[in-house]
Structure formats: C-alpha cells, structure tokens
What we know:
It holds the Pfam family Glycos_transf_1. Residues 187-343 form the Glycosyl transferase family domain. It comes from Bacteriovorax antarcticus. Residues 21-175 form the Glycosyltransferase subfamily 4-like N-terminal domain. The chain is α/β, with parallel strands linked by helices. It folds into two domains: 5-175 and 356-373, Glycogen Phosphorylase B (Rossmann fold), CATH 3.40.50.2000; 181-354, Glycogen Phosphorylase B (Rossmann fold, 3-Layer(aba) Sandwich), CATH 3.40.50.2000. The protein has twelve helices and 13 strands. A seven-stranded parallel β-sheet has the order 3-2-1-4-5-6-7, with helices on both faces. Strands 10-9-8-11-12-13 form a six-stranded parallel β-sheet, with helices on both faces. Helix 8 (212-221) links the parallel strand 8 and strand 9. The radius of gyration is 21 Å and the shape is globular. The relative contact order is 0.13.
Amino acid sequence: MKLRPNNIRPVLVLAPGVLAGAEKVVLTGLVGLRDMGLNPLMIIIRETRAPHFAETFLKAMPTGIESVMIDSTKAFDLQLPKRLKAALLDQSSPIILHSHGFKALIACYMMKGKLPHLHTHHGNTAHTLKVRIYEKIAMMTMKTCNHVIAVSHQMKQELDQKLYPYNKIAVIENMLSLTNAAKIRSERALRNKNENTIELLYVGRLSPEKGLLPFLESLAASAVKERFHLTVLGDGVERELVEKFIVDHKMQNQVTLHGFVSDPSSFFINPDILIMPSLREGLPMTLIEALASGVPVLANNVGAIASMVTHNTNGHFAKDFSTESWNEALLKTSENYHEWMKNAASAAESVEERFSLKKWTQKTRELYDLAIKS
C-alpha cells in the first residue's frame, strides 16, 4: 500500500519548557493537523526535575488530541528512547515522527529505526555549557532526519552552513497562534490612549538570552524613562534578579510583573510598543502576535526579526546590545512611536494572512508526503 499523509499518523514529540514559542507552535500545529484529518499523537517528555512544565503543557492541549507522557530523569537520559519506543508500540497506523527541541530530536533518532523523521529547529539558546553541548549534538543529529524545518529563511541560511553538505532543509514559518487578532485590532482602535505614558510590553522567558535585565538597565539610565511604563509577562530563572533590580532602582511604579500568562492576547490591546531585547532568536511567536495585532516592535536585530520589522517604519532596531544604543532607541521611541503604530496597524491584516494556520498545515503536510516518499 502506498502511504499518504492521510493514512499515516504524525507523532509530535516535545520536552516542553515554559509555555512559549516552540510550545505554542506545537499546540497550535496540533489543531491544524487535527482539522486536516491527520489524527496527530502528542508525546510529552516530562522532565522529572521540573515536571510542572509538562503538566502545564498537558492542560493547554487542544481537545480531541491523544497524548502520552513519558518521563526523562536526567539531561542525558539514555533510557528515554526506550520509553519513547514503548509509548509507540501499540500504534496500529504507520507513523511519522516530528520532533521539536533537541531532547526530542535525539530521542527520536535513537529509537526511530526506519520510521520517517522530521525535525523543526526553533533556534538555539546556548545560555549554559550543558545546553551548548546538547545543541552541538543536536546539529550532528539533524543530518539523519528526512527533513529539517527552519522557521525562517534566515535560519535556513544558518543551517545550510552548519549542516553542509546536508541539504534537506525546508522553510515553514511559525503560524499565528492568536485566533482573535482582528478583535484585538478593533479594540486597539477604540482604546483611550494616555498621551503622557508610552506603554511597553515584554512577553517571554525571564532568562539571560532574552535580554530583559540589560533592557531594564537601559530604561533606568534613560533620560526619558519617566515617559515609559513596562508590563512584563513571563517567568524564569532571572525572576528574582528582575524583582531585585526593580526594587533597588525604585521602579515599582514603572514596571508591572504579571508572571506567566497562558493566554496573553488581551495584553496586546493596550501597549504602544512590544520590546524584544533578545540576544538571539529564531522567528518569535510573540513577534508575529504583536504585528498581527498592530503593535510595533522595538528590538535587537537578531534572528529573523528583520524579516518582519522594518527599521523606523513598523518599529525600530537598537544599533547593538549596549546600554547606550538602547538609551538612544528609547529616545527615538518617545519621538516616533505614533508613526510606528500607524504603520503597524495598516499592515497587521496582511501579517495575519501570511502566518495563517492553514498555510502552516498545508506546508507541513507536503513535507510529510516528501518524507514518506523518501
């Protein structure tokens, strides 16, 4: 029998962390695959050292999706491929493995046998030595996949160099996870804007590679700092450091911490600017969500951000990662943010169309078909 995507079952595998970009891609992608009739199976790798990440992910799972949770007890867990294989033994349908994240990639490689295997590369963080070692192993492992998915053209160029002569790299951009972007745009148009305050929004992990602490240092040193209020959505290893910085610099009235928010959509109604002071990125889901909502972006020019943000048009780039550059960027924001908001609002609908779930699902299905044929 000739296998086609509609009679083969996609098995998505992920060791989730904080419910952020990669996690949102998987959760939203499951909906698209389900609605296309592909009956996906979700394998959730639960890190026993931090089981709450997997449990939070499980609670966020869309209805009608079967899931299996398997445990991983250590960073380099040689038993994980056996647990993964055991979880798949009772599958009556032929399956195709689709891994997300380096732990899932390596586990799938070690147990897959002749199963077709795709991997989506969401980018590297490399904020600890252990993670850098894992990412190095992951780069070598990707060469064994039927196909590797890059989430941006810029990422594909990087992978072309790192994985050469491997050449089975496809670009499938992340989809928009918001289902109410049009409603958000309408509510933004009707909001009562306080012209005395420029509302900034940060959405992401509180971890070194995301750059929130250096941004707070720039904000505290800015000559126009009194014009800004910052709302922070997220949690992570730097939470206590962020809280201490805010207290030490008497910024309690200027920065509001909300912690982790599972559905941030309502927070896109009020802000004037989304900040992305990341030191490295792929194609951030938050970036897509903001621009589809009509919110301009102030960012470091890393990853694929420049594929969506045009300098001084629908946002602004700091010249580099320094405090001085971000001070200058904040000054430019205070002078030009109205124009950026106007431009972002006019392009928001086209962003929503470009990153539709339907397009992501169609491209993913085509790649499944290629992997099956090969």
